[in-house]
Specification:
Distance between the termini of chain B: 11 Å
Oligomer: heterodimer
Number of strands of chain B: 2
CATH superfamily of chain B: DhaL domain
CATH topology of chain A: Rossmann fold
Largest sheet of chain B: 2 strands, antiparallel
CATH architecture of chain A: 3-Layer(aba) Sandwich
Largest sheet of chain A: 4 strands, parallel
Shape of chain A: globular
Radius of gyration of chain B: 16 Å
Shape of chain B: globular
CATH class of chain A: Alpha Beta
Structural class of chain A: alpha/beta
Distance between the termini of chain A: 48 Å
């Protein structure tokens, strides 16, 4: 089964997300690499490397990496540089949003999806609209636009 | 010749000046970034100061490689991998030497700069630490016949590079999220790099 490695600046954020994934897809291995070695906000290449090795050891099918922000990519690149080539070949890094991407990836991985399928699922989150179709395009609360149907027509 | 002890004093000076500039760097970064550059660099360099007593009697390569490794794991933001790579490459270039001459010094800083560019993929005018580091390394290389003058020229060139890109729009890192609004703000990375070259000049001059 494909594993997930979550890389981010806040250990608390990643722990919370891991708990959500454990509920949605309990069989999927999820390893987190959040914060610096001293536990401060930030990312650490050695911690990411450790997480990658741990995920790959448990999952012969490989692992998907999700990032919280672009600045985590620099530390991730350093970690990947230090990973053995055979292990590096089983890593795919997602462009998807962290929370939605991880949930979609975990569900796909739990269903036995391949590395490519799990990556594709995680990246569909980029175009994912979380709101109902009739939500105002400018993001305003439904019903606040003149002449627009209120969001709750039953009231 | 520059000894490992001299380089240790450079890192100590850099750590002290980063600590003193922590609020200023954080202010600069809160205008165009995520307000963590001062805090992150201070945390990393404080960790380095604690390492120095155990490294100052060894070789220059080990001193800078240990510095790089520590920064990578403690700094946290993008500056961790970038300064970490800089010092790792510097250490690799110096190898097991305990005395470094001006030519080796310039070659080491060139290797460090190339590491930063390869890692961060920033070029001149992207408004990053590279804009201070490129002219500083060039000044160092141009002046190896007279080391004190070259160190001074490098510090002056770094500051000029930092100031030259202040009017520009940032094209890398978090500041680039702001687009046009990043113009006319001094870049925090170019500022800490200037502090690095000023620390090098002042620490080696004192020796």
């Amino acid at each position: 089964m494909v594993a997930l490695v979550l890389v981010g600046h806040s250990p608390e954020l990643l722990r919370g997300l891991r708990a959500m994934l454990a509920q949605a897809a309990p069989a999927v291995p999820v390893v987190v690499a959040g914060g610096t070695d001293g536990g401060a906000l930030g990312t650490s290449a050695p911690r990411i490397l450790h997480a990658l090795r741990s995920a790959l050891a448990d999952s012969p099918d490989g692992t998907i990496v999700l990032l919280d922000l672009g600045s985590a990519a620099l530390a991730l690149e350093m970690a990947l540089d230090d990973l053995e080539p055979s292990a590096r070949a089983r890593v795919r890094v997602s462009r998807g949003a962290l929370v939605e991407g991880a949930v979609r990836a975990a569900v796909q991985a739990a269903g036995g999806g391949s590395l490519a399928a799990v990556l594709a699922a995680s990246e569909m989150s980029a175009a994912l609209d979380k709101l109902p179709d009739d939500w105002p395009a400018d993001g305003a609360a439904p019903g606040t636009h003149p002449g627009q149907t209120p969001g709750r027509p039953d009231r | 010749m520059i000894s490992t002890g001299d380089f240790s004093r450079f890192l100590e000076t850099f750590a002290a000046r980063i600590h003193a500039a922590k609020e200023e760097l954080t202010q600069l970064d809160s205008a165009i970034g995520d307000a963590d550059h001062g805090i992150n660099m201070d945390r990393g360099m404080t960790a380095i100061s604690e390492l120095l007593p155990g490294l100052q009697d060894g070789d220059a390569g080990t001193l800078f490689k240990q510095t790089g490794m520590k920064l990578i794991s403690t700094v946290g933001g993008a500056s961790g991998p970038l300064y970490g790579t800089f010092f790792l490459r510097l250490g690799t270039s110096f190898g097991t030497a305990t005395e470094i001459g001006p030519t080796e010094l310039a070659a080491g800083f060139r290797a460090g700069l190339e590491g930063v560019i390869a890692r961060g993929k920033a070029g001149l005018d992207d408004k990053t630490m590279v804009d201070a580091m490129v002219p500083a390394v060039e000044a160092l290389e141009a002046g190896i016949g007279d080391l004190p003058a070259a160190l001074d020229a490098a510090a002056v060139a770094a500051a000029a590079g930092r100031d030259r890109v202040t009017p520009l729009v940032a094209r890398k890192g978090r500041a680039s999220y702001l687009g046009e609004r990043s113009a006319d703000h001094q870049d925090p990375g170019a500022t800490s790099t200037t502090i690095l070259f000023e620390s090098l000049r002042d620490a080696l001059r004192a020796g």
